């Protein structure tokens, strides 16, 4: 299975490398947002920190990943509608390798994009005292978040009737960070908005990443962040697998 998955992964990665504008396009929007919020709005936003880009970066990284996984839906949708998926199914390969190749491609491509965004943040003045273990923990959280959103992306990739339908699900995910602690502290929000912001997944994930990058430590909130990521990933995986098996019949 590993060898077949590797071959399918290589096919998808070659397509991305032949058209690197995919990664660049995904990176451009969050970078532009980061520039806008830091240099235009940053002076008017009170976050209790001296360096707004440090406060902002975790939320921007989540938006970057949410934008990137939309291409997973699109690649899978293209394989299904072009008949390539049907050809793969008739070949002597494990069926799950087909989906896992798309999932691994999402992880690799999103990791590349996240690195680009972080490098730009450093150029804008981002600084962190976190040690290597804290950075690895941040990478682990972002990896779980990517897996969770990627398995969500598999579902419309398999079921959508149009290219627009395959990617439309990502729009709420991209805008969810705006109603969280990603851009401003939640205690500045009206009561109802604050209640939603403090109890949705992005806030716990952003706060955990921010604490790791700022102090190298996290509190109990990381367990909430991990529960959201793992719970979403498991549920999405089960639904996507069921849909895929039904399409094999």
TrEMBL record:
<keyword id="KW-0812">Transmembrane</keyword>
<dbReference type="GO" id="GO:0043190">
    <property type="term" value="C:ATP-binding cassette (ABC) transporter complex"/>
</dbReference>
<keyword id="KW-0472">Membrane</keyword>
<dbReference type="InterPro" id="IPR047817">
    <property type="entry name" value="ABC2_TM_bact-type"/>
</dbReference>
<dbReference type="InterPro" id="IPR051784">
    <property type="entry name" value="Nod_factor_ABC_transporter"/>
</dbReference>
<feature type="transmembrane region" description="Helical">
    <location>
        <begin position="166"/>
        <end position="184"/>
    </location>
</feature>
<feature type="domain" description="ABC transmembrane type-2">
    <location>
        <begin position="21"/>
        <end position="247"/>
    </location>
</feature>
<feature type="transmembrane region" description="Helical">
    <location>
        <begin position="53"/>
        <end position="77"/>
    </location>
</feature>
<dbReference type="GO" id="GO:0140359">
    <property type="term" value="F:ABC-type transporter activity"/>
</dbReference>
<comment type="similarity">
    <text>Belongs to the ABC-2 integral membrane protein family.</text>
</comment>
<dbReference type="Pfam" id="PF01061">
    <property type="entry name" value="ABC2_membrane"/>
</dbReference>
<feature type="transmembrane region" description="Helical">
    <location>
        <begin position="132"/>
        <end position="154"/>
    </location>
</feature>
<keyword id="KW-1133">Transmembrane helix</keyword>
<dbReference type="InterPro" id="IPR000412">
    <property type="entry name" value="ABC_2_transport"/>
</dbReference>
<keyword id="KW-0813">Transport</keyword>
<feature type="transmembrane region" description="Helical">
    <location>
        <begin position="217"/>
        <end position="240"/>
    </location>
</feature>
<keyword id="KW-1003">Cell membrane</keyword>
<dbReference type="InterPro" id="IPR013525">
    <property type="entry name" value="ABC2_TM"/>
</dbReference>
<feature type="transmembrane region" description="Helical">
    <location>
        <begin position="98"/>
        <end position="126"/>
    </location>
</feature>
<feature type="transmembrane region" description="Helical">
    <location>
        <begin position="21"/>
        <end position="41"/>
    </location>
</feature>
<protein>
    <recommendedName>
        <fullName>Transport permease protein</fullName>
    </recommendedName>
</protein>
